[in-house]
Amino acid sequence: YDVLPLPSEGEGWGEGDFPVKDKQTSIIAIIPARYGSTRFPGKSLALIKGKPMIQWVYERTKRSRLVNRVIVATDDDRILKAVAAFSGEGVMTSPEHATGTDRIAEVAKNLDCDLVVNVQGDEPLIHPDMIDQTIAPIADDASIPMGTLCRKIEDRDEAFDPNVVKVVRDGKGFALYFSRAPIPWDRDQWAGKNCLSDLPLAGPLYKHIGLYVYRRDFLITFAGMPQTTLEGIEKLEQLRALEQGYKIKVVETRHESFGVDIPGDLGRILKRLDESRE
What we know:
Elements: E1 27-33, E2 47-48, E3 51-52, H1 53-62, E4 69-74, H2 77-85, E5 90-92, H3 100-108, E6 115-118, H4 128-140, E7 146-152, H5 156-159, E8 166-169, E9 175-179, E10 206-215, H6 216-223, H7 229-234, H8 239-243, E11 248-252, H9 265-276
Helix pairs in contact: 3-6
């Protein structure tokens, strides 16, 4: 795992050839943050080294070289007040949204911008480079409606964990399919094995990282589409776009980010921060 120390505002990252922020391509990052969570209610407000988790996500997103503006989209006044307390920008949204995509689409309808970045509100270790890497190909090619990230799997447990989503790309870096199953299936290496625990790690396999960039108009259209068959089976929203014939650019990154799903995950976050001396 690579948690790089963050540079000061305005410093280069030393990786990737990203243009600086400009006014011609307006890019707004929206962080969906609902209060209700079955496994960890109010996790956006959980303190990490004295700061609420949503502040960590917000400040890291602000350090993107390409994002012009950052907004927290929430359904709870407590989160809105916490954002205001660290001088962030927040907006209240409907509590009825089923997904973070629906929540950011509500906000995007009232924005004048070219691209919208969906940064998960429960990933306090998100590296700004990951955001810029995802934005770059979408900003350069108006024909691409959305993009996301992947990282090579090096841990066998991740390869066969259904909670870790896998992705297969074509030769130009566009998604062929996302699945909770280990794909591609290595027929020769895994032949004759009777259960997943018997399968050796074979590669290359890539896990999907849930950071998304959308063209604003496509995001609004996408959020209004009905659920598709494969989406319903795998419980993966991005399959809706593929089933409807839209392309998803998938950029490989060397960075990693950990989501916070339960209170116990905070210990892992603190350990990573201590290792990076942030």
